[in-house]
Structures are given as C-alpha cells and as structure tokens.
Amino acid sequence: MSIGPDGIAYSIAIAFEVSGPAFGGASTVIISRSTDGGVSWQRPVTAELDTSFTVLNDKESVTADPLDNGVAYAVWDRLVSPSTNANPDSFNVTPAFRGPVLFSKTTDAGVTWSKGRVVFDPGQNNQTIGT
Predict the structure, then answer these.
(1) By the 8 A CB rule, do 32 and 15 touch?
(2) Is 74:59 a contact under the CB 8 Å cutoff?
C-alpha cells in the first residue's frame, strides 16, 4: 500500500483461479484506491489480466509518486513456464522459466492503469525472483 501527497491510498494484489492446471489459471493484477483515508475502498481496477495457464503474476508492489498528485506506479514479476505441449515434464523444471518485470502507471489517481509492459527481462532460464 502507498499513499500519495493528495491523500489517495493505493493497494495492489494478485488474484488468480485455483482450479486451473499449471499455475492455476488466470492471473490478474488488481489495484484499488481509497480517497477517504482507508475508510472505504473503491472497486479494484485491472492493471493486467493473463488468461494463460503458463503465466503467474507475482511479487506486486505499488508506489504513489511523492511529488505528483494522482500519479502512482505498479511493478510485478511475471513467471512464465515453458509450454507443456512440447514437453509435459517442463513445468517441473524450474530453471526453464522466464521471469520478466512488468510496469504499469496511473495518472488519473487510480481510475485507470496502463497495461503492464516489460521493463526488465533477464532472459530465458532466468528470473528476478530467487536469483
């Protein structure tokens, strides 16, 4: 959670389906905001929705810009497993994963967020988690 100079609080979370195979189905980065000091929270806005069973968004963080009202930034890791179509055992081989970092931004106090974009990709067989 992070609070901007205008008093708007931002909270970020990852939501996912536990019923799917692999990582568990769709993985969504959602961000909610409070304009009344946390007394109430508005319905979360989706910054990223991944419906692939080979993707898991993880390790999310949100930061309000300390100098610019209504501006905040979100980052998270995306774990991408290899396709199990080519090799059914590939999901169990952790080094085969990719782990880029994605970034999203709001400039309207969290009403909308930009679609996540890769800002760092450590390459195949590398991740930003546990390296």
Answers:
(1) no
(2) no
